[in-house]
Design goal:
The protein is of the alpha+beta class and 885 residues long. The protein is built from 15 helices and 45 strands.
């Protein structure tokens, strides 16, 4: 009788953190030594068949900056599939960053890896804190149909380690979960002496054997920043001589899946959805709010790149400007470096996080200046007939109507605003002004000194809001300031003694207990006791929020309110006030019930004309330690499930996890908690009502209350150590280094938080395109002033341009009422424009807009032709290619 031996695929690798408790500079120096050693071993030992360089091509780029002469060596090994690089640019996290950040990371990673010789064709994610629910579709669109990962599936829920992972859209990959981690057996190292190898097989291999549900065992041999084990081929041969029950070979994931799938075709079980169970490995469920300052920057830059900059660059390209691929590459690479799972997590030393914040600053500065020069160049080509011209860019694919914020330099504060095309006057409200005459006029540069230009006697820098209509889809419109004509309507805010504001949709009033009352004017439905701030302790670390054993939870209901003011105009209304909350200074005072410090919270509630979203800005002068600040909204909707956006569509999550009842008995690594991530919004919904909160900051929420009717949005949390032992929510060892203090993570000083609320008292979530509502809230219409006296105001002057562009222009447009728009950009090949859309609804199909159905469908690589899909089911996305010609 022939017994088929199980095959142990020994897969050598290193997991290389580009930064962690050490910074990038230290990691890079050691990386150079490591890759040199890997190249030498692979070139000199044919028995060392393959090595995985953590599936992130950025490591190769880092190396080649110092050793460009080794490119041919790397190319040879990659092409022959002995050194595996890609498909990632960096080992990104999946639950903290945006869907476009994940897509672009894979796009840049696979393209660079293919340039070198071969892109590792496996969704290899050894250490991300959870797996996104729609990753299988993303992988499939890059031609990847297998995945290897560590965290996310409990054996008490699903016992198999090799299975079919089905995404929320129905796409699937064949997956192998490294239930014991990528470092299992590698962290300890295979012993050299034969007498110890038997024990090693018993301790490590047999456990993997018992967990494997096929005849193929995935044995990842490596660990963090691990050196290559030069004699690994010999050790594998020794195992074959010692262990008669198994067959050992040096392998790689591509070979592993080829053989395992071939033998188990159609026999693997299916597991579906988002993978965030922390029984065997920690998910760090509350890392979404760690280092709120970094999370806010990440989210703002991501939104700016995708919602504003890239569409404006498409407009510029359509008008003859060069699409700046190389500049965008550098910006996105900075974002990818920060999107690596430790970096974006914020679970690092203060020194490392300073590096991350610097990269965000550079990325943001580059993006803002790239937008500025693009708008400036376009405006310099427009045939204006006036001196004080403003151009507004619509980054939406259809006509825009709404309030637009403008910054301008004007000769006086009594001016009127007009359409350059029709001369129609626009009403506006002035929100800020300051005189800058000397500063501005000293910087004026005349490119042609022989030409007389308009130079005002005085210059005021102003900010204003105006209501605009019919800005062409994915285009621009022009208007001008007339300094000699006063506005027809009063253009200042008027203060009001009442404590309520309104627009056509909402009435908002301030209650005596510091909460808000929101009335939906369409139905008369009142939502009382809104915007309650909750302050509690945080005994956690950079990985996990954890409540103190003795906590003192306080709310804003009993706070001292000061400086309540109401401002009204025909464009917008706002309510401002400040609260002083008496809170504990630190965990010691909290345990004793002492409230010795005054925490000041400044609130600005804004309602623009016709806006469907209530806009909140909250600034906090944080002067206390180790605490968490959240804001609550009572939806009056008893809920078993929450709805939030994840990768390309909504996801439905239970508001309470059944695993909470058994986690201690089953000895989970981390307490299962229903504190969840989102891309931009969270909502509760009944059959005929919905209530949603949109964040422009921390992407973390929880549903609380007696009937789970309250949405609690985390604003920030603070802590003093990178890692701590024995947390209430995470017992046992620390995650990270417990001796590393993180005073910067206390976030002392001013913290600004932006979020919005959208209420619909007539429709359920399945009848509302919440993706569109959130994107509208998160997208500002960019504007630029074209006036010759401003040429050189930033010390850079521009040459004269031929004036040939019209006052108004549209690149192309389509109806996005019932779809989500993820990206509008130029293709990597630069011969077409890319539009990525998705189904934004929870439980119904949508039709691809008719205007788009004629275009070519492509995969996420932007090159491979995809099958045409005119109907999109839940969570489905498609990428369309519009030829420039």
């Amino acid at each position: 009788m022939i017994i088929n031996k199980k095959k142990v695929h020994v897969i050598p690798h290193t997991h290389w953190d580009r930064e962690w408790y050490f910074n990038t500079s230290r990691s890079t120096i050691y990386l150079l030594k490591h890759i040199k050693e890997v190249l030498d071993v692979l070139e000199n030992d044919d028995n060392y068949t393959s090595y995985i360089l953590d599936a992130q091509i950025s490591l190769v780029e880092d190396y080649l900056k110092y050793y460009p002469e080794d490119l041919s060596r790397i190319q040879s090994l990659v092409k022959n599939k002995r050194l595996y690089v890609g498909p990632w640019y960096t080992q990104t996290d999946q639950l903290v960053i945006s869907q476009e950040s994940i897509v672009r990371n894979l796009l840049y990673g696979t393209n660079k890896a293919k340039e070198i010789g071969h892109s590792f064709n496996v969704g290899y994610v050894p250490d991300a804190f959870g797996q996104g629910g729609n990753m299988p579709q993303i992988y499939n669109s890059f031609g990847i149909d297998t995945a290897v990962f560590w965290r996310g599936v409990a054996d008490s829920t699903f016992n198999d380690t090799q299975f079919i992972w089905e995404g929320t859209d129905g796409s699937s990959v064949v997956a192998n979960i490294m239930r014991n981690g990528y470092h299992f057996g590698g962290e300890h190292g295979i012993p050299e002496h034969d007498r110890d190898k038997t024990r090693y097989i018993e301790d490590f291999i047999e456990k993997l054997d018992k967990e494997s549900n096929t005849n193929h065992i995935y044995f990842a041999y490596g660990h963090d920043q691990a050196p290559i084990r030069e004699n690994l081929p010999k050790l594998i041969n020794d195992f074959n001589n010692i262990d008669s029950n198994r067959n050992y070979l040096m392998s790689d994931p591509e070979i592993f899946f080829d053989e395992m799938i071939d033998e188990n075709h159609g026999e693997l079980s299916v597991y579906s959805g988002e993978l965030t169970q922390a029984k065997h490995s920690r998910i760090h469920k509350t890392i979404f709010s760690t280092r709120a300052d970094m999370k806010q920057l990440n989210n703002k830059v991501e939104n700016f790149l995708v919602n504003v900059l890239e569409p404006v660059l498409v407009i510029g390209d359509s008008l003859g400007l060069e699409y700046p691929h190389s500049q965008l590459d550098e910006i996105w690479k900075l974002m990818f470096e920060n999107a690596a799972h430790d970096s974006i997590g914020g679970c690092n030393s203060d020194s490392t996080n300073k590096d991350i914040l610097h990269r965000y600053k550079v990325a943001q500065d580059l993006a803002l200046n790239l937008l500025e020069i693009t708008m400036r160049t376009i405006s310099n080509k427009i045939k204006f007939n006036t001196d004080l011209n403003i151009i507004a860019f619509n980054t939406w694919p259809n006509e825009y109507e709404g309030v637009v914020e403008i910054e301008a330099y004007v000769p006086n504060l009594d001016f009127s605003l007009h359409s350059s095309k029709t001369n129609e006057e626009y009403p506006y409200v002035l929100t800020h002004s300051e005189e800058l005459t000397e500063y501005v006029l000293k910087q004026t540069i005349q490119v042609n000194p022989s030409k007389d230009i308009y130079i005002p006697d005085k210059v005021f820098k102003v900010k204003l809001k105006t209501m605009m209509k019919n800005i062409p889809g994915l285009g621009y419109t022009s208007f001008y300031i007339d300094p000699n004509k006063k506005a027809s309507n009063y253009n200042r805010y008027e203060t009001s003694p009442d404590q309520s504001i309104e627009n056509s949709k909402y009435m908002i009033s301030l209650n005596s207990n510091n909460s808000l009352k929101i009335t939906d004017k369409h139905t008369g439905k009142i939502y009382d006791q809104q915007m309650i701030f909750v302050e509690s302790g945080d005994d956690g670390d950079s990985y996990n929020y954890s409540p103190p054993i003795k906590d003192l939870q306080l709310t804003s209901l009993d706070s001292n309110r000061i400086d309540s003011k109401t401002y009204k105009s025909n464009i917008s209304e706002k309510l401002t006030f400040s609260l002083n909350m008496m809170v504990p200074y630190d965990l010691s005072e909290r345990a004793q019930g002492i409230t010795s410090r005054e925490l000041t919270i400044n609130v600005n509630v804004n309602l623009d004309k016709e806006s469907e979203t209530i806009d909140f800005n909250v600034t906090v002068n944080n002067n206390v330690l180790s605490h968490k600040l959240s804001v609550q909204f009572d939806t009056d909707i008893a809920s078993s499930f929450s709805y939030a956006d994840h990768l390309f569509g909504p996801i439905k999550r239970p508001v309470k996890l059944k695993e909470e009842m058994v986690w201690e008995e089953e000895k989970w690594q981390e307490k299962p908690i229903a504190i969840e991530p989102m891309q931009s919004y969270v909502a509760l919904s009944s059959k005929d009502r919905s209530f949603s909160v949109i964040t422009d900051g921390v992407r973390e929420y929880e549903v609380v209350g007696k009937n789970h009717e309250i949405i609690q949005l985390t604003l920030f949390r603070t802590f003093g150590y990178m890692g701590k032992n024995d947390l209430a929510y995470r017992p046992g060892r620390s995650s990270g280094e417990s001796i590393v203090k993180t005073p910067d993570a206390q976030l002392l000083g001013h913290i600004s938080c932006d979020f919005g609320v959208y209420v619909n008292s007539r429709k359920s979530i399945n009848d509302i395109n919440l993706s569109r509502v959130a994107k509208r809230y998160l997208t500002d219409i960019p504007t630029y002033q074209n006036s010759e006296f401003l040429n050189g105001r930033m010390i850079f002057s521009q040459k004269r341009e031929k004036k040939y562009l019209p006052l108004e222009k549209s690149t192309f447009s389509f109806n996005d009422d019932h779809i989500g728009v993820s990206a509008i950009k130029a293709s990597r090949e630069n011969n077409s424009y890319i539009i990525r859309i998705f189904n934004p609804y929870m439980d119904k199909s949508v039709t691809v807009p008719e205007e788009l159905q004629k275009y070519k469908y492509v995969e996420l690589d932007e090159v491979t032709e995809a099958s045409k899909q005119d109907k999109l089911t839940t969570n489905k996305f498609v990428t369309l290619n519009i030829n420039k010609n």
